[in-house]
Each structure stands twice: as C-alpha cells, then as structure tokens.
Amino acid sequence: MDKRYNTLSPLEEIEMRKALLDEIREQPGMSLMTALRTLRTRTRLTVAEYSKMTGVAERTIQNIEAGRSCPTIKTADKLLKPFGLVMGVCSTKNH
User: Fold this and answer.
1) Using an 8 Å Cβ cutoff, are 28 and 90 in contact?
2) Looking at the predicted structure, is the pLDDT value of residue 92 above 70?
3) Would you say 75 and 60 are in contact if contact means Cβ atoms under 8 Å apart?
4) Fewer CB near the last or first residue (10 Å), C or N of the chain?
C-alpha cells in the first residue's frame, strides 16, 4: 500500500472499491490503459505491489499505463483479475 495515504477502515475500503468499480462500469468506452491506471492508483497500489499481485512485470505495467504498449488479452486479464473484472466486447449502439 502506498504510504502517502492514511489507512482506511475495512468498511471504508469496501465502499471505496465499490464506488470505483461503479465508476469504471459507467464508462464502457474508457481505454484499457486508463482503466488499469485508475484501478491501481485509486486502490492505492504501487506498481511494485500490483506487479507482485498479478505476476506482470513492473516495466510492462508502466508501459501499458503510459500508452507505450498494448497488452495481450492474457496480460490484460491478469491485470483485471484482482478487481473481479475481465476483458469483454460491448456494443457501441447503446453508448
């Protein structure tokens, strides 16, 4: 956990994560790069912690978040899994 932040109570942590997931779901057009960075930073994870949690190299995460590379579906799934999310396809007709 990034030490720049005060520790949240378990209830506050759950509420923050629910709000974050709702925010991500409400923006289906959000780029994967933006979604991953938002998920990581808003849950207060450092790149090193996120890397250890997902098994994806720190440099790879940094490059994806900076838009310098595009992850494979397998890598994207690894990065989304801790948040209970998966890659998917949605229709733009409804958005």
Assistant:
1) yes
2) no
3) yes
4) C
Model confidence pLDDT, tens digit, residues 5-63 = 678 888 888 898 899 889 888 887 888 899 999 999 998 899 999 999 999 999 999 99
pTM of the full structure: 0.78
Handedness of CA 36, 39, 42, 43 (dihedral sign): negative
Looking at residue 8, its amino acid is L
Amino acid at 57: A
How many Cα atoms within 13 Å fall on the side-chain side of residue 71? Answer: 26
Long-range contacts of 2-10 (CB under 8 A, 24+ apart): 2/44, 2/45, 2/46, 5/44
